[in-house]
């Protein structure tokens, strides 16, 4: 769905979704996009990982309007004594999300000390960062037999509730696989696990991959052993400071899946961005900010569903219960590290304790961040009625504003505006943005003219970050003139498609 563009010259934030300053979008304001809860929406590609099995948190997910959530069934937490399973927590969580109109996909994962051994990285620095992990059941026949018994018990218990099962978490990363990653071993785990699921729940949809990043070689490796015919969806987690960077590798993976079987779908199963630099796990690169996180979230969702054609885009994370101010033990700082700080290592994990600031609810008071409202706007505007629609278009930059250099002299990513088009029987939606590193605040917006092969009768402009809805002039000769351009998505839609709150 990539289309060539032609360019020519021309700390804490209030938990609110208020409109930006009027001078940034100088159009007649009609009101604010009306939020919808999950039960108000029949279907959509939007999900969130709650980060908790507490119903109070799951209810907050329903307030956003997501239709999916990822829940985890951890082998070691459920089978705490041999052949004895404790389902109390999963019973509560699975039923809770369904009550709120959200469909869970459940990840069966994790080693178990009753059957598998602890391991860690050989590199002492990585071992200190990641700690120990229980190995997979592929190490012994006894462990595999016990794992498959656990899978059988889980699917038998929940086959009338759970329709989507995912096999393991990030098996290409030693910190989660629990041994040196092996696509062959993971492929065997997928085949045997999927076989058990199919016996019990033939109509279940089976997800596999759950890879750390988009990794064609690993995905090809585990699919090549016969897993491709047993599963329905390949999932991935691709953390990066600019979400559009995944397009290149994602299209490679899409082509790979087509070779293995045209029915295989691609889903983004877990990914998010921190609002603060002092986060645990994936950190990203400066700058950080509450608005930056919200902009990143919107751009991720459109990148996944339009450019990669993913059937689901799942944001990580809604809430985190970590303790603020916790610092990890660091025994290997070099002299320069004592000046510059712990080696940042390209955005990857530098802390395993503290708060995971990818959450959309503040810690510890659980107030909504701007990303919470931005995601709610996206869920309310684009639901399952809309499908990606390849659309010819042309963007001309009238005024680059604060985005220095965009125009005919700079036609390379990320200095090229992007457009994602969706279509339903009710009309079209055109979302567009500039894929730069997002800024926390913009002093002004750029100005563009947009020509697209899509007719509009009563167009409005929706600010997906702040939620404002603005009246647009009908296009002249097919061109929307003097539109604002930002580093987050603005969307053109038909007014009857958009629920508007006027107060």
Keywords:
22% strand, 12 helices, alpha/beta, TIM Barrel, 2 domains, 503 residues, eight-stranded antiparallel beta sheet, globular, single chain
Protein architecture, described:
With 503 residues, the chain is of the alpha/beta class. It folds into two domains: 22-31 and 384-501, Immunoglobulin-like; 45-381, Alpha-Beta Barrel (TIM Barrel). It is built from twelve helices and 23 strands. It has an eight-stranded antiparallel beta sheet. An eight-stranded parallel barrel has the order 2-3-6-9-10-11-12-13, surrounded by four helices. A three-stranded antiparallel beta sheet has the order 15-18-21, with no helix packed on it. The two termini are 38 Å apart. The model is unreliable at 1-16 (pLDDT under 50).
